[in-house]
Specification:
Blueprint: H1 11-34, H2 39-46, H3 60-70, H4 74-85, H5 89-107, E1 113-114, E2 117-121
Antiparallel strand pairs: 1-2
């Protein structure tokens, strides 16, 4: 029996979540480039959500709150709706890149953070 008391997803469900992340990453990246968007914008913005790690300099609670806010799919989805309503290609490009980043993180096993520490995510403990 697998101990799941630390709040991480294990076994088959974890692999499914990582596979979903991979699909999200690939799909949004393909859509982005199929629209003839500039590759340099993708490269420049891909890691921007990771700047949220700097919030951990304040404390773990605030750090996990900010990190999770920028690594939840809710942000790109709400912003996508905004981009559609405003007919803004720029907003939609940003959403594709942001969503691809989140998918990539999930694919490699980086999940949403618990307040117990940066390395404790819903998918696994990073570094273990």
């Amino acid at each position: 029996m697998t101990d799941v008391s630390d709040g991480t997803v294990n076994g088959g469900p974890r692999w499914i979540l990582q596979l979903e992340g991979a699909a999200f990453f690939v799909l949004l990246t393909v859509i982005y480039f199929s629209m003839d968007n500039p590759w340099w914008l993708y490269v420049a913005l891909f890691l921007v959500p990771d700047l949220s790690m700097l919030a951990y300099l304040a404390n773990r609670r605030f750090g996990s709150l900010v990190y999770n806010a920028l690594h939840s799919t809710l942000g790109p989805l709400v912003l996508t709706l905004t981009g559609i309503l405003l007919y803004s290609d720029v907003i939609l490009h940003i959403c594709l890149i942001w969503g691809a980043h989140i998918g990539f993180d999930r694919m490699v096993g980086f999940g949403l953070k618990y307040q117990t520490g940066f390395r404790h995510t819903h998918l696994r403990r990073i570094g273990h």
